[in-house]
Amino acid sequence: MLAKPAAGTGELLSSSTAPHRLISLDAMRGFTIAAMLLVNFPGDGEQVYHTLHHTIWNGLSFTDLVAPFFLFIIGVSIVLAYAGRLESGAPKGEMYRKIIIRSLKIFAVGMFLNLQPDFDFSTIRWTGTLHRIAIVFMLCAFIFLNTSWKQQAGLAAILLVGYWLALTRIPTPGVGKVMLEPGVNLVAWFDRLYLPGKMWQGTWDPESILSTIPSVVSGLTGMLAGRLMLTPLNPHVKVNYLMTAGLLSAATGYFWGLIFPVNENLWTSSFVMVTSGFAALVLGATYFSVDLMGYVRGTKPGIIFGANAIAVYVTGDLLGVIFYRLPVGGLALNQQFQLTMTTAGLEPKFVSMLYALLFVCLNFIPAWWLYKKKIFVKL
Predict the structure, then answer these.
(1) Where does the Heparan-alpha-glucosaminide N-acetyltransferase catalytic domain start and stop, copy by copy (predicted)?
(2) Which are the contacts of 220, defined by CB distance < 8 A and separation ≥ 6?
(3) What is the pTM of this model?
(4) Of 322, 332, 311, 328, whose CA–CA distance to 359 is shortest?
């Protein structure tokens, strides 16, 4: 659906009119989308700087921050979008209906992207980034409409501790002992029983059923940050609280990771704490710089990307099909670019990153046009 509202904080990944506008959240959302394009579309997937790769198993790279940042931002956006409606006494039934419909739409877009370009239903995959966003949004929105911030914090703690105990105390059936290695852990075993369709890694999937539980907590931490932003506290005090909470969360995740490794594929409890801490620190720094100090100019690209984030996400995937299959001189465009630049003497990993940066710039063009025309694509 196309709308022409004034740019606002947005719900989920897209922009919409809201009573509490945070330009910093718009910018953070947009730069996260840009980071997603950068890491997902290199010139050569075998020639990528370490931090622009997902960590193979345990550990944390720049790339591993993208997905949890999305979920954190969704949590903040839920508060900004629904707090006023709750206070005004809007009927929850209508809000539930819209939440469910929106979640289904986002999930459907995720399925469409999984199927293109061949639309081979025999190898269909039922999970992915947008699928997880849809589920986390729906669950977090329902939780927000029916709980206080203290209950949300308590629920987050229970889910993280419960997930930690389950994965470190329950032996993997068929193995007979606790395992946290790829494909032989409790999460992978559960998916093999209950997850339909193709798995991303054959015997396991990073967007698994059980790991959706702690991913909801990534949204809950964003909701707690959103609640803080709506308090009548002095804005500079809000920044202090946000930055302090971010530092404590990241530190807690680091030390928790010594016994329960930081792992995006399993979305471990330590991973949630570390990434939510970083997200809170980034939001705090951006809020201070943009909303309080007024340094907007440097964040304009992020605001433009963030205004139509879902459209950019979809456009990136569709353009990726073209720019990774378009034949140029007998090779795909990305391969020809890689070959030409490396032959000229440039380092392969740098060339691969340069191609990704150019791809980001290409996606900026339609995003800028939509922003200029005040067109905001909503699901």
Answers:
(1) 21-235
(2) 75, 140, 143, 152, 153, 155, 156
(3) 0.91
(4) 322
